[in-house]
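Reopening this one. Same input as before:
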Amino acid sequence: MIRTLGSRIRKLFFIVLIIGQWSLLQAGSVTATVDESEIVEGNSVLLTLTVVGEQSDKLPDISEINGIPVESSSRNFGSSFMSINGQNKMEHTQSLTLEFKPDGNMTIPSFQVKVDGKIEATEPINLTLVKAKVGLPNSDEKFSLDIKLNKSKAYLGEPIIATVLFKQRRNIDVMDIQYEQPAFKDFFSKVIGQQKNYNKGEYAFLELQYLLIPKHDGNLTLEPARAKVAERVRQKQFGGWFSDVPQWSNLTSPSLILEVIKPSKAHDVVGNFKLNEHIDSQKVEVNKPVNLQIEITGEGSLDDFEGLKFELDGVTIYSDDAKVESKLVGEKVESHYVKSFVFIADHDFTIPSKTIRVYDYRTDEVKLLTTKSYDIKVNGAKQAMVQPMVYTKNSRENNTTNNTISSTTLVNTLPSIVALFLAFVLGVVVTLLLKYLPTLVLSKWRMKKFGFNYDEALQVLYPKMSQSPDVEAMVRQLYAIKQGDKSIQIDKKVLKAMLKHYQ
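Same output, byte for byte:
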């Protein structure tokens, strides 16, 4: 009797096992998981929907979850071959990961997908929003994240230094740090220098500094910095063995308020600067370049300075992008600004003086930085065409009556002369168009196909003329073509090689 019962139990267990394996082989699944169920206020959560089965509907695009917009999403697909007790199938996996920021405690609803002919649903997920730890830690805390400004009040355009400081105990084994800098929505910003790492006592420090320029006046909010820190911990796994796993901590720095005051006087930049300039020559040959370099140095930021502009009739002007370098010296920002201009013409011209208004917030005064005016002499310059006045002996000796008759005759014959002249000019224009237009159109098509045009080539090669005689010769040819010389043929392979070398 005992044997019979035992035998039945064994048979039942075997049948259940077979049914379970067959069900595993046949049934699809839909699951929903989050990277964290407790979310630090202001941080994002990652929700991943995974569908596994032989056939399934595509996961739909999801733009919001419980009214909260999805900030980003990504999809992954994969397939694998499975065989269980002689039963084979091709299993397909698709996943959709969604990132969003909860604004309070919430429940992620169930999602339904048709898999292998059945509607499968995920389980709802509860999320809890918790306050972030802010400020410098007490002596018993492991990590902290803080942010400081070098001033709480500044003028519009005045540079501000923001320092982000991460602090941790040195005896903690950190596997990973994921840092998210402040948004700086109301500021122009850039990192100054390199990340600093140093030890002090029982703590290790990581320091970053940013240069900030306010975009407008008023009380501006500096958003917090955020970080996720993974501490290495030993965790017992199924089967009795141990492995290293990350234990994550979320950190948020304080948000700060900065008062920004608008200067009372018109200005171009804020700070204390001096100006230097250099011109290579004031006497050149026709179509040879004149190079002018403007340099501004001093205390303050020049990152948002729009720069100087020149516009001269009949003069081709090129300029490179301004090079601006900023460095922190103590609590001050020092900037170095350099911009170069190239002027090319076939006649004499003058480079006019320019003025930069500098507002010094310490003295509440505006100082003027003024460039010099340069008269440029072009040897072999074209002379202005002057229509000569022709006086004949008869015209000087004619009396009043004859003058009246001559004027009347001129008025009567002028329309005929103008008509003949216009007809002649029109004929010349038509002839030239028929002769050269196909060539010009084909040339432009070829240049477009070749990947560049002459104006772009000039912009690249003009500043490099002094570096090579070949470049100088190429620039002269390009400029001659730009001026209308159709006799010049450019070796496009050579031009392409030059552009590739100097771009």
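So the earlier flakiness isn't reproducible anymore. For the record, The chain has four domains: 26-130, 143-261, 269-379, 430-503.
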